[in-house]
Amino acid sequence: MFPAILTLNPISLALAIRLA
């Protein structure tokens, strides 16, 4: 899904949750 680097970032993590 998303790269591990982006997953480590809280902002990217929040975006991933919204996209999920």
Number of helical elements: 2
List low-confidence stretches: none
Largest sheet: none
β-strand number: 0
Class based on secondary structure composition and strand pairing? mainly alpha
Helix content: over 70%
Structure description:
- The chain has helices at residues 4-8, 10-19.
- The chain is an all-alpha fold and 20 residues long.
- The longest helix is centred in the C-terminal third of the chain and has 10 residues, at 10-19.
- It is flat, with a radius of gyration of 7 Å.
- The model has no long low-confidence stretch (mean pLDDT 74).
What attributes characterize this protein structure?
flat, 20 residues, mainly alpha, 0% strand, 2 helices, 75% helix
Briefly characterize the structure.
The chain is mainly alpha-helical and 20 residues long.
Topology:
Elements: H1 4-8, H2 10-19
